[in-house]
Fold Stage 0 sporulation protein A homolog.
Amino acid sequence: MLRIAICDDTIGDLSNMVSIINDYKALQRDKYKIEYTAFNSAVDLIAAMERGEQYELVLLDILMPFITGMDAAKEIRQFNQDVKIIFLTSSTEFAVEAYSVGAYYYAIKPIWKEKLFILLDKVISEMETTLGKSFLIKSNTGLTRVFINRLEFAEVNGRTILYHLTNGSVIEATGSMTELEKLLSDNVCFIKPHRSYIINMEHIDTLSQREVKMQSLALVPISKANYPIVKLAYINFSFKE
C-alpha cells in the first residue's frame, strides 16, 4: 500500500493534486492500494506524523505561512528518515536546499498529471523492490525503516532491542526476543547464536566456538549448545551464497 500526504496552503493547487491522485488511484485500483490525506498547512501535517500517522510519500509545497515546506521537511526528517518527499513549488531557488533534506524530487508548478504519474510509478516500483527487504520499527526516536542488508546483529536485554547497523549506528526499540524472531523469521540470513542475540550471517567475519566476530569487529557470544547449529547454518548459507 502507498500512503500519501499532500500538503499545500493554496486551495486550488491542493484540489488539483487531490484530483490527480484520485485519477492515479483509479488507474491502479486492481494493482495497488493507494490512500491519501490532504493538509492545507505544514503544522497539521507535522502534528499528524508526530501522532504516528505513516506515509511512504509526502507531496509538499514549499512556500507556506507559519512553517514552510522546507522547515517542515527538516522536522519530518528528525523522526522519519525513510519517507519520500517530493517538493512542489513555483520557484527554483530552494532546489539545492531541498536535496539537503533528502528530497526525492523537486517539481516546478504547475504540476501536470502525466509527469506526476511517472513519478508515482517510480515510487511504487522502488517500494516493491525494497519493502520486501526491510521492516519498520517504532524506535525511541520515531518510526524507522531497517533494511535487512544493513542490519549486522540485534541484541535483546529485557524489553529493549538494540539493532546494530553496518554503518555503526544503533537503533533502540522496545520488544522481546520472541517478537524479534518473528520479525526476522522470513529471512534465512539470520540465526540465533545466543539467547540474547540474533546475527546476520552476511556480515560474519570469523566464527569460533565461543564467539562470532562480525565484520565491524563486534564480538557476539555463542552458547555451547548453539555452536554446532550456528556452524552448520553458516556453512550452508555460505555455500548457497
Notes: The chain has two domains: 2-133, 140-240. The two ends are 31 Å apart (CA to CA).
